[in-house]
Amino acid sequence: MTDVVDSDELLRRIQRARACAQEEERTWRTRRDSLRQDDPDGAREAAVRSLAYEAVLRVLDEIVTPGRQGEEA
Q1: DSSP SS3 for 2
Q2: E-assigned strands of the chain?
Q3: Among candidates 63, 59, 51, 64, which has minimal Cα distance to 25?
Q4: Which runs of E-coded beta strand occur in 2-54?
Q5: Model confidence over 1-51: pLDDT tens digits?
Q6: DSSP secondary structure string for all residues of 19-65
Q7: pTM of the model
Q8: How far apart are CA 36 and CA 70, in angstroms?
């Protein structure tokens, strides 16, 4: 990893990663909701994965807009 990127490219990469994490979080949340009645174990696993992506989103948000999360609480 010897590539050097400027701050604009780094921000674009973080934004792409955030968009991907957001989509995955939605996917797993939807899956959790659809499995809740018929497959409690599958729903639990989907919930854990959804929470993991939610944590990734928080971290990426903090990188892009530092301190903003604390203001919303």
Answers
A1: coil
A2: none
A3: 51
A4: none
A5: 678 889 999 999 999 999 999 999 999 999 999 999 999 999 999 999 999
A6: HHHHHHHHHHHHHHHHHTTT-HHHHHHHHHHHHHHHHHHHHHHHHHS
A7: 0.79
A8: 32
